[in-house]
Predict the 3D structure of the following.
Amino acid sequence: MFALAMIAYTFLFSRFDSWIPDDTDARTREIIGMQMSMMRIVFGVESACAGVLGVLHLAAAYFGFDYRYRAFGITTLILGLCSLLTLYCAPTAIGLGIYGLIVYFNPAVVRAFELRKAGLSKQEMLAEFPY
């Protein structure tokens, strides 16, 4: 969702040059144009990074539900902390990162991923736990 918002801001700033009053001097127009170019670059990079992180999180969730690729899930959680730089996603990124890492390093979860890696089916692996 954040990536889509940043894409919208990128297009908004690409149209911002037309909002400058006609009586503005050339130097001011040049400065405003440079600032808008920088904002387009910043929002474009943020949207690309957020989009990639979103896809990685979805892939990690898919594999996590099947108890596969634990290292991929941990790596994705750590990479997800990069969204702290946007400030917008900071509370969610911190909460998800801390709780997710606690879960991934829980001994029962580690054992479940090891059993799946050893070749047990999901049902056989779940039968190993007495809950």
